[in-house]
Structure to design on (818 residues):
């Protein structure tokens, strides 16, 4: 019956756990998005922020022409689209502006010329119509038409013999725009034409880590194959989906590596001490059962959880190992399962309640990962407790109980050394504690989640390459305006551009790219059309037509050649929207403006140092400008600060819960304070040492504070249980058993913690140092400070024939019989 229940529940939990889905992006650290349209857009499916930037350039020590780069880009994009022929992963790739697109855009421009001419550009228009300027332009027209590529320019020249196009595309014959890019061979290049660019729009959101992983794997494979055939080429890529995959890969590798190292060391150590392979089963079976129970319940509740929780949970499961070790060590000493259950039930149950109180507070947070962590830890410990207390004693082999007597003798001798009698050690700990309490308020909190993100070498090189081709190595951030109609959105963008102009002149930002010349509010279009009509009087039209005809004759153009230009002068113009005209393909338009959820969103890339984004946003808002930042991490900064503030409240609530549980359990204020002491004091030591060494809290390592709370209470409960039973004189050896279990637990946890030092991902590595400080402080206080005060307040007084101090408050059942 026993094995039937155990195996059937184990199989059930395993089946349910196998169906859970793991989310792999650290943005789950953020609170759930509130009913705020602005924040929702920053996290929404806007394509512009989820694009992958592809960069093609010559490999080191190679020299490649722009034409060769263009050909490489075309070839690689074709291979990529062929690989994803069903368009499961790739929605589109914008890598060239084909001639039909350019022709359509030019046609739209000439069909709506007045709309795109500003008032100050009429001075330039006047100069273009002067006879000497027209003669020079006509010569350029003739040279273009008689060149090998002349056919491509026929329609443009017939429509625009005066060269009005130079007003709209200034500089280098219109090839460069924005000072950041250049057009060459219909492709988009960096301004020095050494890098050709492509922009891949995924079919999925950047937070869909599974689809992103498939796409990035495909990119890695295709790039490796292409560069092997073409060693003279380098292909780099970066973007939000790449960041997501880079993080998840590193987290998986770090979890596997650190857990593997720690498990090997732990198992070897335990085999040496226990000399029984079954001990490994006794140790791991309850924890595995607890983990499967936790995952299965989480699956039934929500169906998924963050992968990062498993990495952090590897530490927390050290508390679960502690439960098992207390049972196993008791078994090694007593063998009798019934006696083990009798001695362990009360302290194990109290330890469980207090630990659940420590971790349960995380369930009150709005952060998805913190919520997952609290749920995973609480359920995992509950499942481990059930298995350790109900199933594990039934498995103990009472006839063949092995252990290394030599190892246990050494351990018992070390544990029996009265550290609490070393006055210098007591003074040192109390001195450090006082100093740490004083400076604890100076520890800083890092609210920037970017510092917890990970970029692999390829992504880092891609970002560095992109930055090197922009103004002063700046980093682009997308600002946007949003409104229910297009005109309102454009007007808001005009205000944003005004503010950005001011910041650029002040040197706060390095530059920006505006699309306002393409999108003009209807009212302003009407004003521009009226200005055009006023400018082109019938007399001026006749004069300009005559001048063009005369200049054309000098280069053998017939009088009817420039009839399309005359139509431009005579046409009746009306307001027109470039967005609604659908002249530009979606892959181009989506970089400028999008319509989503009933609102228009207009984008403005801003070049700046990434750490200035908050200062820039504050300056713009201070000027009364309405905008949003299309970067979840921007809003995360305030959200993380909010979580930090809430976390202090949660720690107070958890502490109060633990104190109440301890007070009910021990029915003594003195004993409650003594049990709570290692947990509370170790927390202040962590804060103080972090402040002293300049270490910062972040959203991940602050979670470990709950772990320090949990393990600190567990150790102190078992230490107090042993001290009390020893005082009664009935179970004098119980303290030895408990200290042995605490020692093994500490070894396991410190090994796991130290293995985190070898992690590469900053989110995982940041946990190690904080946990190591907390664990070391907890163990030292449990072994030294707690027994010291217990002997001062209770044992020494009994030895002198005095009543223990705690009896002034209550007659405690552990000390006073009857």
């Amino acid at each position: 019956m026993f094995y039937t229940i155990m195996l059937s529940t184990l199989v059930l939990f395993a089946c349910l756990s196998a169906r859970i889905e793991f989310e792999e992006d650290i943005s789950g650290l953020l609170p759930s998005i509130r009913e705020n349209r602005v924040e929702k857009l920053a996290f929404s499916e806007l394509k512009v922020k989820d694009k992958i930037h592809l960069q093609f350039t010559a490999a080191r020590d190679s020299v490649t022409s722009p034409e060769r780069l263009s050909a490489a880009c075309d070839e690689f994009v074709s291979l990529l689209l062929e690989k994803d022929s069903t368009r499961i992963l790739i929605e589109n790739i914008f890598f060239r502006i084909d001639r039909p697109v350019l022709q359509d855009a030019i046609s739209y421009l000439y069909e709506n010329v007045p709309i795109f001419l500003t008032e100050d550009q009429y001075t330039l228009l006047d100069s273009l119509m002067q006879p000497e300027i027209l003669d020079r332009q006509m010569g350029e027209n003739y040279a273009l038409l008689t060149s090998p590529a002349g056919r491509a320019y026929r329609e443009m020249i017939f429509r625009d013999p005066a060269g009005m196009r130079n007003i709209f595309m200034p500089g280098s014959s219109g090839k460069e725009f924005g000072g950041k890019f250049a057009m060459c061979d219909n492709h988009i290049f960096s301004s020095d034409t050494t890098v050709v660019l492509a922009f891949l729009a995924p079919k999925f959101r950047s937070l869909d880590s599974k689809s992103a992983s498939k796409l990035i794997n495909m990119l890695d494979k295709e790039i490796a194959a292409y560069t092997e055939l073409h060693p003279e080429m380098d292909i780099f890529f970066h973007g939000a989906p790449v960041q997501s995959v880079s993080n998840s890969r590193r987290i998986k590798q770090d979890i596997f590596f650190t857990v593997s190292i720690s498990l090997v060391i732990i198992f070897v150590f335990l085999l040496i001490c226990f000399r029984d392979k079954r001990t490994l089963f006794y140790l791991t079976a309850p924890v595995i059962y607890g983990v499967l129970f936790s995952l299965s319940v989480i699956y039934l509740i929500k169906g998924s959880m963050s992968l990062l929780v498993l990495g952090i949970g590897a530490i927390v499961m050290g508390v679960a190992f502690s439960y098992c070790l207390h049972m196993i060590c008791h078994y090694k000493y007593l063998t009798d399962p019934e006696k083990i259950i009798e001695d362990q039930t009360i302290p194990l149950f109290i330890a469980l309640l207090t630990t659940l109180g420590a971790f349960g507070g995380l369930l009150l947070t709005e952060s998805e990962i913190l919520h997952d962590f609290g749920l995973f830890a609480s359920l995992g410990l509950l499942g481990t407790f059930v298995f350790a207390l109900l199933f594990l004693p039934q498995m103990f082999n009472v006839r063949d109980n092995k252990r290394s007597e030599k190892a246990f003798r050494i351990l018992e001798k070390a544990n029996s050394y009265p550290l609490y009698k070393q006055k210098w050690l007591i003074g040192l700990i109390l001195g450090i504690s006082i100093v740490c309490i004083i400076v604890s308020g100076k520890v800083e909190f890092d609210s920037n989640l970017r510092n917890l993100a990970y970029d692999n070498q390829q992504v880092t090189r891609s970002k560095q390459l992109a930055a090197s081709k922009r103004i002063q190595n700046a980093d682009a951030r997308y600002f946007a305006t949003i409104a229910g109609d297009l005109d309102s959105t454009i007007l808001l963008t005009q205000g944003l551009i005004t503010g950005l102009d001011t910041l650029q002149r002040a040197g706060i930002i390095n530059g920006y790219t505006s699309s306002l010349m393409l999108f003009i509010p209807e009212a302003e279009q009407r004003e521009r059309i009226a200005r055009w009509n006023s400018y082109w009087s019938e007399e001026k039209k006749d004069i300009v037509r005559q001048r063009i005809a005369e200049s054309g004759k000098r280069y053998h153009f017939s009088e009817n050649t420039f009839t399309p230009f005359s139509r431009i002068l005579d046409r009746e113009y009306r307001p027109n929207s470039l967005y609604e005209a659908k002249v530009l393909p979606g892959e181009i338009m989506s970089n400028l403006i999008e319509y989503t959820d009933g609102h228009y969103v207009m984008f403005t890339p801003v070049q700046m140092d990434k750490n200035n984004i908050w200062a820039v946003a504050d300056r713009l808002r201070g000027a009364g400008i309405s905008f949003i930042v299309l970067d979840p991490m921007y809003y995360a900064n305030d959200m993380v600060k909010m979580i930090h503030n809430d976390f202090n409240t949660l720690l107070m609530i958890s502490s109060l819960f633990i104190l109440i549980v301890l007070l009910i359990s021990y029915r003594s204020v003195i004993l409650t304070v003594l049990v709570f002491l290692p947990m509370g004091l170790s927390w202040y030591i962590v804060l103080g040492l972090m402040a002293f060494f300049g270490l910062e809290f972040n959203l991940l390592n602050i979670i470990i504070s709950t772990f320090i709370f949990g393990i600190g209470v567990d150790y102190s409960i078992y230490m107090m249980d042993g001290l009390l039973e020893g005082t009664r004189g009935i179970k004098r050896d119980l303290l030895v058993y408990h200290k042995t279990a605490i020692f093994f637990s500490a070894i396991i946890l410190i090994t796991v913690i130290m293995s985190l030092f070898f992690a590469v991902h900053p989110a995982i590595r940041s946990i190690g140092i904080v946990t190591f400080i907390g664990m070391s402080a907890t163990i030292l206080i449990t072994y030294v400070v707690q027994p010291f005060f217990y002997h001062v307040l209770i044992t020494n007084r009994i030895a002198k024939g005095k009543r223990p101090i705690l009896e002034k408050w209550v007659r405690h059942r552990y000390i006073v019989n009857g």
